Amino acid sequence: MGKGKLAKFAEMKAMSNVFEYPFSVIDNVPFDMKGHWREQYFHNDNPIVLELGCGKGEYTVGLGKLFPDVNFIGVDIKGARMWTGAKLALEDGMTNVAFLRTSIEIIDRFFAEDEVQEIWLTFSDPQMKNPRKRLTSTYFMERYRRFLVDGGLVHLKTDSNFLFTYTRLMVEKNQLPVDMCTEDLYHATPAALVGTPLLTIQTYYEKMWMERGLNIRYLRFHLPKQGTLVEPEVEIPLDEYRSYHRSKRSSKETAR
């Protein structure tokens, strides 16, 4: 690990808006704030929104600035990246933004039933080779149900046609209510989003992909608590391009 990363990890340990609970920690140290984020950290009764796989955290911070009456928590296991957003939030005195460094596989250990209102998935790894690791798989949806309010919103913003198509098919297969769906967010913008501030937030990688002429896809749907979730049994063509600093994950022509 480079000196820069070590310095960032050391600095993060002292940041009041960062909570670090990787697998090696959570098994031995209970997370006492589960179910008490509002009273113990945010000190308000505002809604809680998660960004899972937040990377540098700039989208979490951007949402926090746009919606000061909402509490936002960015979640990622990559602490050196998260440092950027956490530091910016502290410097700007933002009290409605926090960061949790942990594996999303155990995200349900940190939030109690009905504690979260919305989830954002921004440019998640498509995981074309392993359906179980996709953040929009039924495996993860079942985990989200444990802490998301009944019918809570899930936002997917992605450059990956594979992940977008897979998620859309999963939503259709399970008859989940859809609010919004577009394969080209900035050129075929849904009427409800025209003129809204959400279009003004763009992550570092999103800007890179847009410069390369890639479409940004957006899907927003509701996740009810009831009903058995099933995977779509459809083969989906893999993405043909290599995303910025992301290698192609599979040599197969299609994946389920």
Automatic annotation (TrEMBL):
InterPro entries: SAM-dependent_MTases_sf, tRNA_(Gua-N-7)_MeTrfase_Trmb, tRNA_methyltr_TrmB_bact. Substrate binds at D159, T203, Y204, Y205, E206. It catalyses: guanosine(46) in tRNA + S-adenosyl-L-methionine = N(7)-methylguanosine(46) in tRNA + S-adenosyl-L-homocysteine. Pfam families: Methyltransf_4. S-adenosyl-L-methionine binds at E51, D76, D125. Keywords: Methyltransferase, S-adenosyl-L-methionine, Transferase, tRNA processing. PROSITE patterns: SAM_MT_TRMB. It is an enzyme of class 2 (transferase). Its EC number is 2.1.1.33. It comes from the Bacteria. GO terms for cellular component: tRNA methyltransferase complex. Pathway: tRNA modification; N(7)-methylguanine-tRNA biosynthesis. The keyword Transmembrane helix does not apply. One of its GO terms (molecular function) is tRNA (guanine(46)-N7)-methyltransferase activity. Belongs to the class I-like SAM-binding methyltransferase superfamily. TrmB family. Catalyzes the formation of N(7)-methylguanine at position 46 (m7G46) in tRNA. This is tRNA (guanine-N(7)-)-methyltransferase.
